[in-house]
Specification:
The protein is about 50% helix and about 0% strand. It is an all-alpha fold. It has a two-stranded antiparallel ribbon with strand order 1-2. A hairpin with a 4-residue loop joins strand 1 (about 135) and strand 2 (about 140-145). Helix 2 (about 35-45) crosses helix 9 (about 165-175) and helix 5 crosses helix 6. The longest helix is centred in the middle third of the chain and has 21 residues, at about 95-115. It is globular and about 50 Å long.
């Protein structure tokens, strides 16, 4: 898609200013900060069944409501805090997804204890060169939202007790934090 600024972008970025900024400055850029990684995987879980633009519009509310996605704080949320979050109109009030964030915070703490940090763990799932771009149909520019690497990550996270981390969610997470670069050929961000 050719933007009004003369730059070629992935078509999904559309024309919404928030979406364009996300595409241009965040999506696909490598992330190594553990709290930011935790935020990203939680927001991908909240996005399931919704548009990413909905999540972007509520992202600051999510950050404020979930203590900046500090998993060391979230792991200790009690039922009162969960009920408070479920009543918060500034976020997605899906009780299962809210409980998942608390559960995943506990799992993240265990993972950090075992692996040292989340970044090394998540980046260890970067697909080998032989798997890259095999999920792209270049005739239609459509991506298969599930890859062998996202299946591996999903299975391992689930084995560790994480929730709302299916292979599609994991792949979107991998795209968003730069583990894979799915900016289309010609996109100025590629």
């Amino acid at each position: 898609m050719l933007g009004a600024d003369g730059k070629i972008r992935c078509a999904w970025a559309g024309k919404d200013a928030l979406y364009l900024a996300y595409h241009d400055h965040e999506w696909g850029k490598p992330v190594y900060d553990d709290n930011h990684l935790f935020e990203k995987i939680c927001l991908e879980g909240f996005q399931a069944g919704l548009s990413w633009l909905t999540i972007l519009r509520k992202r600051e509310n999510f950050r404020n409501s979930f203590d900046g996605f500090d998993f060391n704080k979230i792991a200790f949320y009690d039922e009162e805090k969960i009920d408070e979050l479920a009543k918060n109109p500034g976020i997605i009030r899906h009780i299962g997804k809210i409980r998942s964030v608390v559960n995943n915070a506990k799992c993240a703490r265990q993972l950090v204890e075992e692996k040292g940090n989340l970044a090394d763990y998540f980046w260890s799932f970067q697909p080998p060169e032989s798997e890259r771009f095999k999920h792209v149909d270049y005739a239609t520019l459509k991506l298969n939202p599930i890859t062998p690497a996202s299946i591996r990550l999903s299975k391992d996270l689930k084995k560790r007790g994480w929730s709302f981390v299916g292979p599609t969610t994991c792949y979107a997470f991998m795209q968003s934090i730069g583990i894979v670069n799915d900016h289309i050929e010609g996109c100025f961000c590629r």
